[in-house]
Design goal:
This protein is of the alpha/beta class and 412 residues long. It has 18 helices and 17 strands. The chain has 2 domains: 190 residues, Phosphoglycerate kinase, N-terminal domain (Rossmann fold, 3-Layer(aba) Sandwich); 206 residues, Rossmann fold. The two termini are 21 Å apart.
Length: 412
């Protein structure tokens, strides 16, 4: 378990404080409209707890990166967060200038502010270590206007950015409820002991991430159930004529070249743990879902978009025999209902058991809501992507390390 201080410690020390809270509200934007998602709902719990306790809550968050289409201001985010809180969120069109400082000073107990996109300040993405970030204008100015800092942005905890690692060096610093619960659940595969079978369902489009996880935690996992691009690449390594680009696709060959050696090594070392797809699904000439068994594939002439029924049945049986199941990545293109069978079928199997379960990655967790599954049927549904990968592989999360390192100062 992490040794950071939590909101429980903050409530014992402060009343009606001015609290800086780092959230991760980074969201898809469609036709100029910021999309609501699970992150707003989760972070609203932390913000609401602080506001209801009478603190003046000053939220920091980011959206996109400079130069990208989704790099924009946070006025829409304030409206969405307000809906989840059922209280007004005042959007402040400033980050650490006079407008922001005045708004923080004028805030009443229980009031919630959202400052503008913190990545619009040059200090946020500067290449500095945490101590240097602590001395930046961004951190120093806001710290002077606040009493305490809360980091609730677990999904960005692998980033060493100013608003994530600078404040704990200059303010009493605490983990929010999202940071606390995400860290505990996502670290379980490395920190908990399970008496029964541990299974990991791995898929998605980023094979490199999946392979790194399999390589790093193979000794903790009894069964890997593969799908998505990673599944095809492992099938290719096993000698099947799949896992390469067709019809203008550019996702397979480049990832194969980059990861072939590791894939073959993992397959050779952990072959008895790895369960590969038995069949694959594609769109036929009538644009309907069709399936083909591996032994029937002479060459890949079309894109495969899901695992097939035999694979799903096999994976369901494996899940049913598991004490713990971790999911990273979808088994197919579940956004298209024709090719959601693999992803949804395995999620349904997990929901039907009483195993400890963590569903990680924003894309995969979206399938729970899209197909009417109940989030409470899973032990934890993570809103993290990159941080989830690092937690699974045991890599350090710099923002978590900073909270831990600075705890003695927080409790002084």
């Amino acid at each position: 378990m992490a040794s950071f201080a939590t909101l429980d410690a903050l409530s014992e020390r402060f009343s009606e404080a001015r609290v800086l809270v780092r959230l991760d509200l980074n969201s898809p934007i469609e036709d100029g409209t910021v999309q609501d998602n699970r992150r707003f709902e989760r972070h609203a719990r932390t913000v609401s707890e602080l506001a209801e306790a009478g603190h003046r809550v000053v939220c920091l968050a980011h959206q996109g990166r400079p130069g990208r289409d989704d790099f924009t201001h946070l006025d829409q985010h304030a409206g969405i967060l307000s809906d989840h809180l059922d209280r007004d969120v005042q959007y402040v069109d400033d980050i650490c200038g006079a407008t922001a400082i005045d708004a923080i000073a004028d805030a009443d107990p229980g009031e919630v502010l959202l400052l503008d996109n913190v990545r619009m300040h040059d200090d946020e993405l500067a290449d500095r270590d945490p101590e240097a970030h602590a001395n930046s204008d961004l951190v120093a100015t806001l710290a002077d206007a606040a009493d305490a800092y809360v980091n609730d942005a677990y999904s960005a905890a692998h980033r060493g950015h100013a608003s994530l690692v600078g404040f704990p060096h200059v303010l009493p610093a605490y983990a929010g409820r999202v940071m606390e619960t995400e860290y505990e659940a996502n670290s379980a595969i490395a920190t908990r002991e399970f008496d029964g079978q541990v299974t990991m369902v791995v898929g998605g489009t980023k094979a490199t991430d999946v392979i790194q996880v399999m390589d790093a935690i193979g000794n903790k996992v009894d069964a890997f159930c593969l799908g998505g691009i990673a599944g095809e690449l492992f099938l290719r390594a096993a000698g099947h004529p799949v896992g390469h680009d067709v019809g203008g696709s550019d996702r397979f060959d480049e990832q194969w070249e980059r990861n072939e050696e590791t894939i073959r090594a993992v397959l050779d070392e952990r072959g008895d743990q790895i369960h590969l797809p038995l069949d694959l699904a594609y769109a036929d000439e009538y644009d309907q879902r069709a399936e083909i068994a591996l032994w029937q594939i002479d060459e890949k002439s079309t894109s495969f978009l899901d695992v097939g029924s035999a694979s799903i049945d096999s994976y369901r049986d494996i899940v049913a025999d598991s004490e713990a199941v971790f999911v990273k990545g979808a088994l197919g293109v579940f956004e298209d209902e024709r090719f959601a069978d693999g992803t949804v079928g395995v999620l349904e199997a997990i929901a039907d058991t009483d195993c400890f379960s963590v569903v990680g990655g924003g894309d995969t967790s979206r399938a729970i809501g899209m197909y009417g599954l109940d989030e409470t049927d899973f032990s934890h549904v993570s809103i993290a992507g990159g941080a989830y990968i690092r937690a699974l592989t045991g890599e350090p999360l710099v923002a978590v390390e900073t909270l831990e390192h600075c705890r003695p100062k927080t409790e002084a």
